[in-house]
Amino acid sequence: MGKITKILGAILVVVIVVTIVLYFVASRYLTPERIKAFIVPPLEEATGLKVSIGDIKRAGLFGVKVNQVKFLDPVVKKDVISADELRLSLKLSPLLKGKLVVSEVAFIRPYIFVIREKDGSINLTKYFAPEETAPTQETPPAQKEPAKLALIFQSIKIEAAKIKFVDQKKELPPAEGTFSLNGGLKLEGTSLVFTGDGQLNVKVDKYPLVEDLRFNALVRGKENQIKLVGGKILKGKVLGEIVLNEEKIKGLIRLSQASFKEGENLAKVLKPYLFPEAEIPALDGGFDVEITLAGTISKPIVESSVYPKPLKIYQKPYTIVAEGEIKASVEEVLPKINLTVNGEKFSINGKVSLKEALPRADLLISAQKLNLKALIPEGEKEAPEKPSQPEEKRVSQKKKASLVLPITGKIRFKAEEVCYQVCAKDARAEIVLNKERLDLKNFSFFLAGALAQVNGNVTNLSDTPKIKFAYSLAGADLPTLAQSFFSKSDYFASGKVWTEGAFSALGIEAEAVKKTLTGQGNARFMQLGLKENNITSLVAQVLRIEELKALKFDQGKLNYAVANGWVNVKGKFSREGLLLNLTGRVGLDGRLDLIPRLLFSGKYASLFAKNFPGASLFRTQKGYEVPLSIAGTLEKPKVSLKEVEEKVKEKVKEKAVKEIFKLLGQ
């Protein structure tokens, strides 16, 4: 027991002696001037910034604590990076050989200031961007100076770092972040190898965009590797890996179960800076994102895929649900999306090229059955005429309603059935897009059993849009056509119609189009059958011919012109014993101002002569010609005889002349 005590005592004496000697060596070697000479010049040479440090104090046996480390811009004299404290722990054995080897370095509460200058540049890029130098011949490994590797950091720690972004142009929102890093730096051969892990949080104008993003880092020679192992962006989980090898870059980042609601919150933060005039819709649902990196650092190739699961957009009067996939790169966007708008389902496929000054689209919109009425705001379906408004308010509404399409290309449309008030089968169309113009080409569909075609364009998109189109319809079933366009219509029992025409109008809303609509066209009819309706009933009642309540014409033709809210018509319809010449106008609001002239012969002449008192007033060489006047509205028409007084006066005058000649004996 006594021997053991002596041995332990001897060991303790040796430890105390060695500790005192090492402390003496360290005290003599670690002077503030020598530490400053080791730290400041390499940092200034590496960054181009002026480095200043505060008090240097001993910390423990082989430790150093430096207060207030600052990296200043030598021109503007502003802090770029600063830290409250820098702690160094030194390795024991190199001190005995006169070398400073840092076994551990810790930056305590560093601050990094990222500033976007008024010219749009970022302050840090000019300090840390690699300088372009002419290629030089590499020094053989044997000739490298190993002394430069004497100052190495075997352990690096960044604690509670803060990053602050300020935009002096005031185009981007302020941002701030917190950052921590814990790693080690060691020498493998002639290469330094850094390994570590860290954590990052980012707030954009107080919105938590990146939360607890954790990563592992590996730097070995020219290869840099970062693994994302956890954390959230827009409440979605983040995983991935990025590898940099010299100039080459490769990576894959996945964001899963992110929240569109958080995207709405972020949009509200960015709105004052990026899109102040936009209206932010309410969003809901989740999405996944996959981002791949390739190419080089100077010319990276970034491709991303977004998977809405689903995206829900609420903005009165629309409810939109989107599901599918959107692939995007710097050159193109490839959507493959299924959409539901107010319950109506259709899909969008194709691509949008980003290679030109304006994006160029080549998209296909397809559907099985699409009800266009569901896509039109309620206020525009049957918009009542609004009272006049002050000029200032009208101008603001005009600006709000303006359309600007910063895109070119074409959109093709295909649907098995498209309905508004009329349902069309097998609809196919192509819309050509320009910045200030939309061209409707090759729009064809089956309407009431016949092929219809529409061609036209919409111009002045950024001002008051001007609509102009031409149409043709060959052999449509008239009763089906009329009942489709006018749901309350019950005028036609049979008939085929061939028609074509052209129209133009200003505006987008239904009321504006109705007021400015102009156009002209013609129609031809075969076997036109009229059911008994308000107008025919009144005509039959006035002329006392029951057979006029329901008519059938063998053929007919009609020319029309639209202007100032009225459709001016001129036509002729005929069958055996009956000829109808029609002139006048019909208002787009349903008002009537028509003058039909009926020419009776054969059977109809006999009925008119028998049933109508004073039929002789309307007798001509070809039969009986009866002019009528139709006023009122389609729902409440008014029918009356026209030129009756003139006819009576003419007959009275004729009879008086005959009586005078008879009296004179001639």
UniProtKB/TrEMBL annotation:
The chain crosses the membrane at residues 7-26. Pfam families: DUF748. The keyword DNA-binding does not apply. GO terms for cellular component: plasma membrane. Residues 378-395 have a biased composition (Basic and acidic residues). It comes from the Bacteria. GO terms for biological process: regulation of protein targeting to membrane. Keywords: Membrane, Transmembrane, Transmembrane helix. Residues 378-397 are annotated as: Disordered. This is AsmA domain-containing protein.
